[in-house]
Each structure stands twice: as structure tokens, then as C-alpha cells.
Write a structure and sequence with these properties.
Number of helices: 12
CATH architecture: Alpha-Beta Barrel
Number of domains: 1
Number of strands: 8
Radius of gyration: 17 Å
Distance between the termini: 14 Å
Largest sheet: 8 strands, parallel, barrel
Order of helices and strands: EHEHEHEHHEHHHEHHEHEH
Oligomer: single chain
CATH superfamily: Aldolase class I
Structural class: alpha/beta
Bound molecules: 2-phosphoglycolic acid
Length: 257
């Protein structure tokens, strides 16, 4: 059985005070590791330490939203894997569509970041997803295949054990448009088959695949009940405890059909 995973991607939101308030309230609501759900929050870099302190000892762990793949050194403005580990990160989100589209990150760069993270023992949440035009053109599966192939280049069977995949259709991110349960399940199943072909059935069965894109309290349960949806990567609704907590609760109670 795959443990469910609900991760909050705070993106470029909060200031130090609101970040700590949010983290503290969440830690209070999730005081210990939940029996069936892993919970993580991924604040902006400047607040990692403070948020890490606020959630220490609770059932919530710390993640980062990005990393640079080189060893510490002359890379002005960048943050190394070692630094994320040093401040207590247990996850790093890579390949998010905002980085692919706005920051022009390629699969090749993402794969370097994935490999550097895994080599240092930092597990990865790898995001993949198609745009609306690609979906309309019937290219969803080929786009996902290309992103998986490129972003996971060089990742062996051992490495993939430290990767969680997040299916995030670009058209559903921050738009209020959520993939239907059928669209989500179909993409997740496709990704699981990809893992089976690229790796093996054991990897396909063990890898957690999260859904992301306008997940809210109202739609979380039905998405999380899909057989191949193992959790959620939550943006907007992770910025308020009253919005995020019901999604965690839905992951705890979701029954697989
Ligand atoms: P959203 O963002 O929940 O605000 O749509 C999800 C994400 O980008 O990870």
C-alpha cells in the first residue's frame, strides 16, 4: 500500500511572520506523524529555517521549491542541495511548470537537479504536466512521456525509489479548473505504466503519484479516491490551515475504488 502524501507548495508567498504563523498552526493541527499520510510544506527559501523550527516534532516535514545542481561554490543567487539538507529539508520540488515555463527550465536541467538531489539523499517531488493546447491536440501522453524520460534521465532503480511524481496539468494550476477525476486517473495510470516499462512492475506499484492543480477541500476526496492518485501537491489551498487541513483529512479517509 502506498502511503498518501499531501504537500503544500507555498510558491512565492508569505513573509516571515505569516510563514511561521501558518507553519505553527499546521504543526498544532498535525502534532504527530499521521498513520497513513505524509504531510510536507515547501516555503520560500528565506523562511525554510524558521518554518523548520515551527514544525519540529510535528507530523509535518519541510521541503524546498527548487535547488541548484552544483556543489556549493561560485553560483550567485543559487542554493545547493547541501544547504537544503542543512536546514532540514526532506523534499525538493523539481520541474514545476512555473519553472519550466517562466524560468525556461528544460528537462535536461531538471534531470541534473534530480540527480544531484538524489546523490545527496534529498528525495524529489518531480512535476510533469501538459498545457491546454497540448491536451487539446491529443498530446497529453506524449508530453508526459517526454518529460518523464528527460527529467529522469540517468535515474536508476534505486534513485527512483526516492522520487514522488506529481501530475500537474498546467491548465489546472491556479486557475480554479481542476482535472476531472477521469482525466486525473487516466494520466496517473499512464505515468504508472511508463514507470513499469522504464523500470519494473515493482517500481510502478511503489511510486507515489500526486495530483496537483486547484486541489481544494471540495474536490480532494474524489481525486484522492482514484486508484492511482496517491496524494496532492497543493498551491493556493495550502496557504490557509482551514483550507489545507481538510485536504489532509480527505487523504486520511479516501477509500480506493
Ligand atoms: P494550485 O497550485 O493548487 O494553486 O493550482 C498547484 C501547484 O502549482 O503545485
Amino acid at each position: 500500500m502506498r502511503r498518501k502524501f499531501v504537500a503544500g507548495n507555498w510558491k512565492m508567498n508569505t513573509l516571515s511572520r505569516s510563514a511561521v504563523e501558518l507553519a505553527s498552526a499546521l504543526a498544532k493541527a498535525v502534532p504527530a506523524r499521521l498513520p497513513a499520510v505524509d504531510v510536507a510544506v515547501c516555503p520560500p527559501f528565506p523562511y525554510l529555517s524558521a518554518v523548520g523550527a515551527a514544525i519540529t516534532g510535528s507530523g509535518v516535514v519541510l521541503g524546498a521549491q527548487n535547488v541548484w545542481h552544483e556543489k556549493p561554490g561560485a553560483f550567485t543567487g543559487e542554493v545547493a542541495v547541501e544547504m537544503l539538507l542543512d536546514v532540514g529539508c526532506r523534499w525538493v520540488i523539481l520541474g514545476h511548470s512555473e519553472r519550466r515555463q517562466v524560468l525556461k527550465e528544460t528537462d535536461e536541467l531538471i534531470s541534473r537537479k534530480v540527480l544531484a538531489s538524489l546523490a545527496n539523499g534529498l528525495p524529489v517531488i518531480l512535476c510533469v504536466g501538459e498545457t491546454l493546447d497540448q491536451r487539446k491536440a491529443g498530446q497529453t501522453e506524449s508530453v508526459l512521456d517526454g518529460q518523464m524520460q528527460g527529467s529522469l534521465a540517468g535515474v536508476d532503480v534505486q534513485g527512483i525509489g526516492q522520487v514522488v511524481v506529481a501530475y500537474e496539468p498546467v491548465w489546472a494550476i491556479g486557475t480554479g479548473m481542476t482535472a476531472s477525476t477521469e482525466q486525473a486517473e487516466s494520466a496517473h495510470l499512464h505515468l504508472r505504466r511508463w514507470l513499469e516499462i522504464r523500470y519494473n512492475p515493482g517500481v510502478a506499484a511503489a511510486t507515489r503519484i500526486l495530483y496537483g492543480g486547484s486541489v481544494k477541500a471540495q474536490n480532494a476526496q474524489s481525486l484522492l479516491e482514484q486508484p492511482d492518485v496517491d496524494g496532492a501537491l497543493v498551491g493556493g489551498a495550502s496557504l490557509k490551515v482551514d483550507d489545507f487541513l481538510p485536504i489532509i483529512r480527505a487523504a486520511e479517509t479516501a477509500r480506493k475504488s
